Amino acid sequence: MADDLWTEKFRILSAAGLIIQASSRKQIDNLSDIETLIDAAKSSGITLLNEHTMSEILSTISQNEDIKENNKKKLIQQTLSIESDTKFFGREIAPVNENLNPEKIPNNLYSNKQLESLSVDAREISSDIQINFDVTGNSVTEGKMKDMTAYFGSRLKQIRDMMISHNTLPRLPIRNSHAWKGRNRYNSQEYEITLVGLASEVKWTRTGKLKFTVEDETAEIECILPVPSDAGPLHPSLDGLMDDEIIGVSGFFISGGRDAPLFVTNIHKPPLGLHTKYSAGKDNSVCAAFLSDIHLGSKTFLSKQWDKMIKWFKNDDLAKKIKYFILSGDGVDGVGIYPGQEKHLAITDLYKQYSELGRKLEELPDWIEVIMLPGNHDAVRPAEPQPALEPEIQQDYSNTTFTGNPCDFSLHGVRVLGYHGKSIDDFVSTLRSVSYSKPEMAMRAMLERRHLAPSWGGKTPISPEPEDRMVIPNIPDIFVTGHVHGHFVEDYKGTLMVHSSTWQDQTDFQMMLGFKPKPCILTVVNIDSFSTTSIHF
Q1: Nearest residue to 532 via CA among 316, 289, 349
Q2: Confidence at 444, pLDDT banded by 50, 70, 90
Q3: Greater confidence, 6 or 534?
Q4: Whether the Cβ atoms of residue 386 and residue 329 lie closer than 8 Å to each other
Q5: Is beta strand 488-492 parallel, antiparallel or unpaired with respect to 495-499?
Q6: Contact present, 499 and 443 (Cβ < 8 Å)
Q7: Could you say which of 223, 242, 268 is where a domain stops?
Q8: What's this model's pTM, rounded to 2 decimal places?
Q9: Read out DSSP for 234-265?
Q10: Which of 268, 291, 308 is the last residue of a domain?
């Protein structure tokens, strides 16, 4: 827990442009408010945090402590109930919105009435759900070395074939073993070669170059990439590479020696052109609603807001246009997920949590079909891809299609890629462009890599299936994730990305990190026009 807390604090400070030395860790650990530290550092013009500069910043914070304490007291009086002692530690309770106004989405701005006029009555349309891929019943791994070899071999072949067939490489790639044998010949820019393989051992040198290894079926080759003068913030030399992601590299060997690295002139990603969405058509222009991370069973489940949403579903005209309700994992809080969880649970029995969730979903109008994926809090194996919930759990539910995680499915032909999003943790800890406050950047990175969880041995457990089913072989029309309790809607290169909102209030762990979730936001998408609205409850 302490290491996770420090990792996230380090991440937040780095994202704010601060450089952290090890000597400052103890002083940073003693601060509960990272935002105060960032503000004080910026106001003092400090970018390097060490023991000396931290003492200077802490002095500045101390001088303003009385003013901040008064402001804090005012904020507590305005937003928190005096009956709950725990609220005084800074938890922000999501309010119940009486006036339901759609959020203004930059790319798709529609009011409820406008979206309603574009949709047909869902009560008159038969459901059409087709599962394109689901690991449920199809997991065959034995967890042996041959399975791991096949798993990475499958990933490399799938993505390399994509790169070749879509002409994303400047020339046909050669095997690493062939490149190494000919390193005396491929020793200048006039004799560049292209390789495709798994990136690993990624690190920055003191001189600002990115050093990494590229491995294919035949050999490993060390590579070095200088930072181009015109490099943007998403250039690999600045943003970083994920361990085990598949990349192409073009370059030449600096020398013919035994330790000669490949001097990389360019990095090539898998193909991701501008996607053209498939439309459900005017006759099937129903809506799909998206939600994730309900965490029923937790004391921080937002019951009043749920009741408000159910009332909306039963009375609002737009709700009559919603045919599908997609839940992207963590429907319940689970039991034994982390040490000390029981003190945070309102329902301590796992099966009672699922029964209560089933009862809550029964409150939805009967014309709505629920599609439910598991997440890392659910009662399935933690290794991804995850199978659907067990039949013993499913029996408490009606009008519900249970799928694995991830799941590639279609609604009236519209292709949806549903993924809970556990690997967002790995993207946050690796890529400089990704943070928990911007989960959409992780979703972009997944699409750009054509893979949902590239890194083996990180924060995301992976099942080594003989075929890597975390590869994204087909670009989805809608890509939906959850997990980090944010909310975002964006069209990215023709794919509508939905990061679904949670129905859980701020947890103790999030409070320690200063992370504020975005709960109780229902995202509604018309699967013909792909217009969207987001309703805050």
Answers
A1: 289
A2: very high
A3: 534
A4: no
A5: antiparallel
A6: yes
A7: 268
A8: 0.81
A9: TSHHHH---TT-EEEEEEEES-SSTTPPEEEE
A10: 268
* CATH code of the domain containing 254: 2.40.50.140
Indicate if the alpha-carbon torsion angle 39, 25, 46, 70 is positive or negative. positive
CATH number, residue 357: 3.60.21.50
Q: Are residues 301 and 257 in the same domain?
A: no
Q: Give the pLDDT score at 87.
A: 35
With both helix axes pointing from N to C terminus, report the angle between 51-63 and 34-44 in degrees, rounded to the nearest 10: 100
pLDDT, tens digit, for every residue of 7-33? 777 777 776 667 776 777 777 777 767
- Count of structural domains within the chain: 3
Q: Is residue 440 part of a domain?
A: no
Instruction: Evaluate if residue 452 carries a pLDDT over 90.
Output: yes
Mean pLDDT of 142-167: 95
Least confident of 148-152, 494-498, 511-515: 511-515
**Judgement on whether residues 499 and 383 belong to the same structural domain of the protein:** yes
Among candidates 409, 320, 410, 415, which has minimal Cα distance to 115?
320
Q: Are residue 470 and residue 525 in the same domain, yes or no?
A: yes
Please give the structure tokens belonging to residue 393.
């759990």
> Residue 391 has what DSSP assignment?
H
Looking at the structure, tell me whether residues 396 and 349 fall in a common domain.
yes
Tell how strand 407-411 and strand 129-133 pair up: antiparallel
2-16, 97-111, 377-391, 445-459: least confidently modelled range: 97-111
**Cβ contact 248:267 at 8 Å:** yes
Kindly state whether residues 72 and 130 are assigned to the same domain.
Answer: no
298: in domain: yes
Look at residue 99 and tell me if it is in a domain: no
The DSSP line for 339-365 is TTGGGGBS---HHHHHHHHHHHHHTS-
Residue 429 in any domain: the answer is no
Residues 6+ apart with CB under 8 A from 70: none
Cα distance between residue 410 and residue 284, in whole Å: 13
**Mean pLDDT rounded to a whole number for the chain:** 87
Say if residue 328 is in the same domain as residue 411: yes
Identify whether residues 325 and 415 lie together within a single domain. yes
Eight-class DSSP state of 488: E
pLDDT score at 66: 47
Asked if residue 389 has pLDDT above 90, the reply is yes
- 225: domain range? 169-268
Most confident of 97-101, 254-258, 348-352: 348-352
- CA separation for the pair 287, 285 (Å, rounded): 7
* Whole-number pLDDT of residue 78: 40
CA dihedral 458, 463, 469, 470 (to 10 degrees): -20
pLDDT at 514: 81
Look at 110 and 361; give whichever has higher pLDDT: 361
Residue 75 pLDDT greater than 80, yes or no: no
Same domain, 176 and 229: yes
Question: Of 326, 398, 319, which Cα lies nearest the Cα of 359?
Answer: 398
Question: What is the residue-wise DSSP string for 48-115?
Answer: EE-HHHHHHHHHHHHHTHHHHHHHHHHHHHHHS-TT-GGGGG-PPPPP--SS--EE--SS----HHHH
